[in-house]
Amino acid sequence: MQIQKNISLKPFNTFGIDVVARSFARFKDTDELEELINQFHDTDKLILGGGSNVLFTNHYDGIVLKNEISGIHEMHEDNEYVYVKVGAGENWHQFVLHCLERNWAGVENLSLIPGNVGASPMQNIGAYGMELHDVFYALEAYHIHDNKVLTFSRNDCEFGYRDSIFKKKYKDQFVILNVTYQLRKHPKFNISYGVIEQELEKMGVKELSIKAISDAIINIRSSKLPDPKKIGNAGSFFKNPEISNEQFDELKKEFPEVVGYPLAEEKVKLAAGWLIENCGPDANTSWKGYRIGDAGCHAKQALVLVNYGSAKGSEIYELSEKILQSVNKKFGVNLEREVNIIE
Ligand code: FAD
Ligand code: EPU
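A: This is the predicted complex of the input protein with EPU.
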């Protein structure tokens, strides 16, 4: 295994932030990972997949371990499901395409999400009416301090909205090695998320299929989310905040247009994009489309912060802080960052 020293992480994060890692290595299996962990016992470690949900605000003084464990294996099946074990280093969207080709259903709504399989349980990736936990079966993860491989079931992972046990109690303790998904042999279509039906109609789809749903979602995503190959970004920078019904009613009195979706337990999920669009650096301006230097708030999706070229991570972070404060000042709502900030 090659250990690289003082290398730029710019090609390894979709924000395109140009910071240097003191050490960098790739691993292709558990043995290589173990060797690296033993060799760099006392060094800070960052496990990296596709780098599409991180913001580097500084040079990284430890070792970056890039997970390149590959392989897609059909383990077993029953009447309803096929169980597929996938190496953490496989690209997520390539895996979705693999499923579409075999008519394995359940991941079509999660088409075109950047990044790798290993990160999919980290924040329980979600989009267009589905979350990873809907298709998750189990994962294997390596404990960095105990040098042990443990298996986690769906319950063990404590999935929530953009959340799992690996972001809370077990933060920075495990390296996810592989994930097993439970995919339907007979699809159950989910086109409940507002714009999907509209897009399918626009496409002239007569007969619903997982391929048609995937294509519709690819079209929707491409129309508003910036392509990281062209403009640096990490998708939604903040989570959509959850507030009580009572707080929502109060907010609606003052801002009748505010966008929110009812949840269980008398809560409402607010569209953070709306909140950000409807406040700004000054009283009569909007953050949406705002740019300072090379840091900006995307003109088509206010929830996405962008790097137009050579913004520093700290500049993106500062912009996020200003947005967070102005949303709080105007609407009394706290935004929480969704992107992992690496200091
Ligand atoms: P990375 O950015 O490499 O890592 C993310 C975090 O997970 C880091 O803390 C890292 O240390 C940790 N990590 C990564 N791999 C492992 C591993 N094997 N073991 C342990 N820890 C690990 N997300 C959504 O949920 N829904 C969306 O619709 C969505 N849309 C996006 C659109 C765009 C344009 C972009 C750029 C991002 C979007 N995202 C979305 C965010 C991102 O794609 C997901 O969070 C994705 O799962 C990140 O995968 P990654 O491999 O790039 O993770
Ligand atoms: N909106 C605005 N202005 C904006 C953006 C959004 O007013 O600039 C309002 C609109 O009312 C719109 C609503 O927000 O109808 C919802 O917007 P959208 O459908 O684009 O979804 P989102 O809530 O902004 C979430 C996820 C995305 C995911 C989409 C689709 C979070 C933090 N973000 O965005 O995930 O792709 O829904 O399901 O939950 C990501 O996590 O990186 C990500 C892109």
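The mean pLDDT is 97. Residues 14, 46-54, 67, 88, 113-116, 118-120, 122-123, 125-127, 174-176, 225, 228, 233-235, 340 surround flavin-adenine dinucleotide (ligand 1) (CB under 6 Å).
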